[in-house]
Amino acid sequence: STVYLNGAFIPVEEAKISPLDRGFLFGDGIYEVVPAYAGKTVGLEPHMQRMFDGLAAIGIKCTKTMDDWKALIQELIEQNGGGDLGIYIHVSRGADVKRYHAYPEGVEPTVFAMANPIKPAITDDASTAKGFSVATTQDMRWKRCQIKSTALLGNVMHFQEGYAGGNDEILLYNEDNILTEASSSNAFIVKDGVVITPILDNQILPGITRKLILDILEKDGSIPFEVRDISMEEVFNADEIWVTSSSKELAPVTTIDGKPVADGKVGKVWEAAFKLYTAHKF
Ligand code: PDD
C-alpha cells in the first residue's frame, strides 16, 4: 500500500521513522481514524477538528490546514485505489536529538497517514447483523481520555482483557460504577425505547460516530435520547447495548459478561437507528 510520510507518498516498505521520534519513545502524538466508503469519507471535518483540538491540547504545532488535510486524504484514497478504507492519521511531536521529557523547541512534527481496507458494517438486511460480545471492567486509563493520544497502552490492555475472554469489546466503568466508554468505542444503552449515552468529559473520547448518531437522532426525532450518567446496574438491565466507532460504525451488543443482553437478540431500536445512520451518515 501507499502511505504518506512527511510530505511524500511512498510504498509502506520505504517508510522509515527515527527511533528518537517522540511518538515511538513516549507515545507523544495525536491520531485519527476516518472511515471512507467507496472512496467517500464520513465525518471528515469533525474528525480533523478533533485532531486540531488534540494537537492544541498537547502543544504540537502542525501547520497543516483543514484544506491541506482534505487534499492529503483525497490523494491517499486515490493512491490506494478508493473503495472502503480506514484512513489512519498520526502526528507525533517529531524526532528530538536526545530522549528528554520536555517538549523540544524547533522540532518538526512527524506526519504519517495510511489507508487500510475495512469492511462496512452495512448489510442489505440490518436484522442479519452480528451481535457483539462484551466484557466489563473498571476503567484504569488516565484522566485525559478526551485527547486522542497515540499512547494507547491503557486502551490496549483493556481491549486485550476482553479479547482474551473471547469478547469483541470491553465496557469500562469508573470508581463510582458509572459507565465511561469501551476500550476503542463509545457506548450506548437503550431502556424503554430511550437511547442513553454518557456525557462528554475527561473520562471519554468525544467519538465522531457518537456525535453523528446523536445528530441524526435529533434531526429525525422518532427515537428519544438522553445524554447523562449511566450506572452499571442500568447497563446490566438495559434492553439494548450498542458500541460505536469509526471502524465498527453502530454495533449491537448481545452478550455482556457471558450473559445475554435482554433476550440476547439484536434490538429493534438498534435496527431503526442503524437504518437512519446508514441513510444519513454522509
Ligand atoms: N477508536 N473511544 C475510544 C477510546 C476510541 O479509541 C474510539 C475510536 C472511540 C470512537 O470514536 P470515533 O467514533 O471517533 O471513531 C471511542 C479508533 C477507531 C481506533 O483507535 O482505532
Automatic annotation (TrEMBL):
An example molecular function term from Gene Ontology annotations: transaminase activity
InterPro entries documented for this protein: Aminotrans_IV (IPR001544), Aminotrans_IV_CS (IPR018300), Aminotransferase-like (IPR036038), BCAT-like_C (IPR043132), BCAT-like_N (IPR043131), Class-IV_PLP-Dep_Aminotrnsfr (IPR050571)
One Pfam family per UniProt: Aminotran_4
PROSITE patterns per the UniProt record, alphabetical: AA_TRANSFER_CLASS_4
UniProtKB keywords: Aminotransferase, Pyridoxal phosphate, Transferase
Co-factor(s): pyridoxal 5'-phosphate
Sequence similarity: Belongs to the class-IV pyridoxal-phosphate-dependent aminotransferase family.
Entry protein name: D-amino acid aminotransferase
Source organism phylogeny: Bacteria, Pseudomonadati, Pseudomonadota, Gammaproteobacteria, Oceanospirillales
